[in-house]
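Sequence and structure are no longer studied apart. To make this concrete, we show below a single chain and its fold as tokens.
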Amino acid sequence: MVSQSSSEAYTNMGKTSDLTAVQKATIDTLHKEGKTQKVIAEEAGCSQSSVSKHINGEAKGRNNCGQKKCTSNRDHRALVRIVKKNPFKNVGEIHKEWTAAGVSASRSNTKRRLKDMGFNCRIPRVKPLLTKKQREKRLTWAKDKKSWTAAEWSKVMFSDESKFCISFGNRGPRVCRRTGEAQDPRCLKSSVKFPPSVMVWGAMSSAGVGPLCFLRSRVNAAVYQQVLEHFMLPAADLLYGDGDFKFQQDLAPAHSAKSTRAWFTDHGISVLNWPANSPDLSPIENLWGIVKRKMQNARPKNAEELKATIRATWALITPEQCQKLMDSMPRRINAVIEAKGAPTKY
């Protein structure tokens, strides 16, 4: 027969929800001291199961909290198929197609399911479309330059034209993709080599940057040779003095014209051979990106203000930044070799 005192002690051993604040504090303190659950139960004046539930129950409860998902695994697989079929659809379009397949979900639920599955809306990376022959030439070029040292790359002056717009905010439709899919061909946006716009010409080396040239008309061979005469030569004097250097340019028609090749020969300037459609191999492409990111908060009202902003931002580029970009050449070349000539992350 159970004594009255034992019965009273037993009835005081309530459930976890019945524990007082003092009992919970006692359990927490003794648990941190490494006491066993039996000893803690005796000290706190409650059952051992209450101690166990208090120690482990809260974390378990938090993991199971929240509203139950209204969609099934089958619905989720259908959602993945929709996104992979066309990753350039926005959330509204994805939601419309998903619900049209018989799934009952709100637009916000669709957005949450996409996020749960690792999909995020990102600005698509722009990569040139390469033919098989172009990939082969890139791979051959990279293997040929694989042994170049930092000293050899320091003697190369990289040049390029880039488009600057009044507004930097509109970068086109976004793409729905998972982490690690930035280079997936399905998630890339193909680039256009020369969009109809005014271009800015610039040059850089490991020593810094040269003067900018704002192009007022379409660049043909004659216009390009004037750029070389009045901007490239002064840049060479600034960056190399009397030292030798190689000049890098892409294979735009004005650059590879017969009269332009004659201009280089007449001026005794060595031109670095370059594979077609290879902006990922040129560090000046990254330099343009740095300049444009610095200008994201600028709000020029007209072309003259835009030019002034570009000049001021270009002047802030340091030789250390240029050297860091030039130091990336071995990594760029190795990346092209590993990709067998395909476009790389650079």
Observations:
- The chain has a mean pLDDT of 86.
